[in-house]
Design brief:
Helix content is 14%, strand content 32%. It contains 5 helices and 15 strands.
């Protein structure tokens, strides 16, 4: 079996029709045996289903997706699991354990949507995913291809397109990237390299205390088997899965943290603009 996940910087990318990359997993006997990153080749909504079909994909895991794309996938026999968010590898493992629930077409504006827990909304339903009008520059609205290397302040690398050997492609200013990354690329020239330092407000936002919650273990089947530090998927009020980390546990209660794993962190990027079109 071959599973594709809309992909960005380690996470499930939330806009199917705008994804610059897919991470493709080869699965045998219910276990991942290999994975690789492939480019969407700038394909739009209508072409992505054909691309996945050509790559022999059996299952697509994504965040938001429109009805037209859902129908195109169905016509090609590709199983859809929409409404996922968080780490891509962990979403695939959750799917293989039977813990992901498909929300189906889940967007009613500009063809796509996104799940709670993304864009620094602290686990609450975001109001929209429109373009950020505060980002200005000659590259806004254009498709940009960039190489990048992301590090924490201590120098630890958390992601790199250089290591994957494939530039990241996205529409600048369309809300597909974190704000600070988008703003930097908006004013770059092809071939230029820049180093940027982002505050949490420019990246994944500050950690939201309201996204940390405690429940009684006896009210959550299976919670007794969880351990501190483990990441699992819960469901929101409408049945959409979202990732949480076990923050604390005692004999009667368990505390989960639904903040993005990058929330509250300062990030550094080396960005190289490869192409603009």
């Amino acid at each position: 079996m071959r599973i594709a996940v809309t992909y960005e910087q380690g996470d499930v990318f939330q806009h199917f029709g705008h994804t610059g990359e897919f991470k493709v997993y080869e699965v045998e006997e219910g276990k991942v045996i290999s994975s690789k990153i492939i480019s969407s080749d700038g394909s739009g909504h209508s072409a992505l289903a054909a691309l996945l079909n050509d790559k022999g994909i059996d299952v697509l895991i994504c965040g938001g997706i429109g009805g037209g794309a859902q129908a195109a996938l169905s016509e090609r026999g590709i199983e859809l699991c929409a409404g996922a968010s968080g780490n891509a590898d962990e979403a695939v493992e959750a799917y293989l354990r039977g813990e992901l629930v498909n929300t189906g077409a889940n967007c009613d504006h500009h063809g796509e949507g996104h799940s709670c827990g993304e864009h620094g909304c602290g686990g609450q339903e975001c109001g929209s995913c429109h373009e950020d009008s505060s980002i200005q520059g000659p590259n806004v609205g254009k498709t940009c291809r960039t190489h990048y290397r992301g590090t924490f302040n201590d120098g630890t690398q958390f992601d790199s397109s250089y290591d994957r050997g494939e530039p990241l492609e996205f529409v600048c200013g369309a809300g597909m990237m974190i704000k600070g990354f988008d703003a930097a690329v908006a004013n770059m020239k092809v071939g230029e390299k820049v180093n940027i330092h982002l505050s949490p407000a420019e990246a994944y936002g500050d950690a939201d205390p309201q996204a940390i919650f405690t429940v009684e273990i006896n009210r959550l089947p299976g919670a007794e088997n969880l351990s501190v530090g483990q990441q699992v998927y819960l469901q929101d009020q409408v049945g959409r899965p979202f990732p949480v980390k076990v923050a604390a546990k005692d004999e009667k209660t368990i505390t989960f943290d639904a903040n993005h794993e990058m929330a509250g962190k300062e990030l550094n990027f080396l960005i190289e603009l490869v192409d603009v079109k």
